[in-house]
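Postdoc handover notes: sequence design on the structure in folder B. Input tokens:
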């Protein structure tokens, strides 16, 4: 296929991968807050960088990845494939982590959620990031294969997306850290993504457009609330 014919699919795939990558950035940013300030950027860069390596490696195993759509077993009339099992476990993991973080921040406060960090903390948090990276990577690779045929387009989209994520990770993390209400909202976003992964693993199709539109609307409402509450507080 001529290069010019791949421009639109490449751009579309980059946009889609970037949108999916925002979930990764939010998750990594919230986990990074558990570390000392001098290690937070390190976790973000390692997490995003290793996600690129993981996706590039999975692209080299496309034949195996596509076999994950084959049914492994049936539960209550629902076909469970390798992909579905990974999405189910990843979604449940994300729901657990999001719910736990929301509870700590809403009920116990930030101080209770900041235990003393030992030398294994960075490693443990990086492992959690890689678990979620694996889930999102397999989902995005299967989506990419369904959109384009050229392997170089997929590789290019992954590399460009990771560069965008690296650039955007610090501003997004800084914004979330400065605005506690947005931190709770971000955790709620991750909760929604976790539930959508579980639904997808059970073959319940929830259009991603609906999910991201509702998230964007909730974000807009929070921005409006922040802009209207601040002037009142400054006047008082």
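Designed sequence:
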């Amino acid at each position: 296929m001529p290069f010019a014919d791949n421009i639109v699919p490449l751009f579309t795939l980059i946009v889609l991968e970037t949108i999916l990558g925002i979930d990764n950035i939010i998750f990594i940013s919230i986990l990074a807050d558990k570390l000392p300030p001098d290690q937070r950027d390190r976790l973000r860069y390692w997490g995003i960088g290793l996600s690129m390596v993981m996706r590039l490696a999975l692209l080299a195993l496309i034949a195996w990845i596509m076999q994950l759509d084959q049914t492994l077993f049936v539960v209550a009339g629902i076909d469970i494939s390798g992909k579905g099992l990974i999405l189910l476990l990843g979604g449940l993991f994300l729901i657990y982590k999001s719910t736990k973080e929301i509870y700590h921040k809403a009920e116990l406060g930030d101080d209770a959620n900041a235990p003393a960090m030992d030398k294994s903390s960075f490693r443990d948090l990086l492992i959690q990031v890689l678990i979620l990276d694996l889930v999102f990577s397999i989902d995005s690779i299967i989506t990419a294969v369904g959109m384009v045929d050229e392997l170089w387009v997929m590789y290019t989209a992954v590399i460009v997306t990771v560069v965008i994520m690296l650039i955007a990770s610090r501003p997004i993390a800084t914004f979330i850290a400065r605005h506690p209400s947005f931190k709770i909202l971000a955790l709620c976003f991750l909760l929604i993504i976790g539930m959508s992964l579980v639904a997808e693993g059970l073959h319940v199709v929830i259009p991603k457009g609906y999910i991201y539109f509702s998230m964007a609307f909730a974000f807009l409402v929070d921005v409006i609330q922040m802009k209207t509450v601040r002037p009142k507080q400054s006047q008082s």
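Context for whoever picks this up: The longest strand covers residues 71-75. Don't rerun without checking with the PI first.
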